[in-house]
Amino acid sequence: MSFETIKEFYELGLWSSSDLQQLVKSNVITEEQFKEIVEPQQVQSVSSEKPLVQQEVTARG
Question: So which domain of life are we looking at (predicted)?
Protein backbone atom coordinates (compact mmCIF):
# COMPACT_ATOMS: atom_id res chain seq x y z
CA MET A 1 0.00 0.00 0.00
CA SER A 2 1.40 3.40 -0.93
CA PHE A 3 2.08 6.27 1.43
CA GLU A 4 -0.39 8.43 -0.49
CA THR A 5 -3.17 5.87 -0.04
CA ILE A 6 -2.47 5.55 3.67
CA LYS A 7 -2.49 9.34 4.04
CA GLU A 8 -5.75 9.63 2.12
CA PHE A 9 -7.43 6.95 4.24
CA TYR A 10 -6.43 8.88 7.38
CA GLU A 11 -7.64 12.21 5.98
CA LEU A 12 -10.98 10.63 5.05
CA GLY A 13 -11.36 9.31 8.58
CA LEU A 14 -11.16 5.69 7.49
CA TRP A 15 -8.09 5.11 9.67
CA SER A 16 -7.21 6.57 13.07
CA SER A 17 -3.82 7.57 14.42
CA SER A 18 -3.86 4.27 16.33
CA ASP A 19 -4.21 2.45 13.02
CA LEU A 20 -1.24 4.36 11.68
CA GLN A 21 0.80 3.50 14.78
CA GLN A 22 0.20 -0.16 13.95
CA LEU A 23 1.57 0.49 10.46
CA VAL A 24 4.70 2.01 12.02
CA LYS A 25 5.13 -1.05 14.26
CA SER A 26 4.73 -3.28 11.20
CA ASN A 27 7.33 -1.23 9.27
CA VAL A 28 4.80 -0.26 6.61
CA ILE A 29 5.46 3.45 7.21
CA THR A 30 8.19 5.23 9.15
CA GLU A 31 7.75 7.35 12.26
CA GLU A 32 8.54 10.40 10.11
CA GLN A 33 5.78 9.47 7.66
CA PHE A 34 3.40 8.97 10.60
CA LYS A 35 4.16 12.51 11.80
CA GLU A 36 3.78 13.89 8.28
CA ILE A 37 0.29 12.40 8.07
CA VAL A 38 -0.98 13.15 11.58
CA GLU A 39 0.52 16.54 12.45
CA PRO A 40 -1.07 18.55 9.60
CA GLN A 41 -4.50 17.32 10.77
CA GLN A 42 -3.81 18.45 14.32
CA VAL A 43 -2.69 21.89 13.15
CA GLN A 44 -5.69 22.18 10.82
CA SER A 45 -8.18 21.33 13.56
CA VAL A 46 -6.68 23.94 15.89
CA SER A 47 -6.55 26.63 13.21
CA SER A 48 -10.13 25.91 12.14
CA GLU A 49 -11.30 26.59 15.70
CA LYS A 50 -9.79 30.08 15.85
CA PRO A 51 -12.11 31.68 13.28
CA LEU A 52 -15.12 30.23 15.10
CA VAL A 53 -13.99 31.83 18.36
CA GLN A 54 -13.38 35.12 16.57
CA GLN A 55 -16.84 34.98 14.99
CA GLU A 56 -18.44 34.30 18.35
CA VAL A 57 -16.65 37.25 19.96
CA THR A 58 -17.60 39.48 17.04
CA ALA A 59 -21.24 38.42 17.29
CA ARG A 60 -21.34 39.30 20.98
CA GLY A 61 -19.63 42.65 20.55
Answer: Bacteria
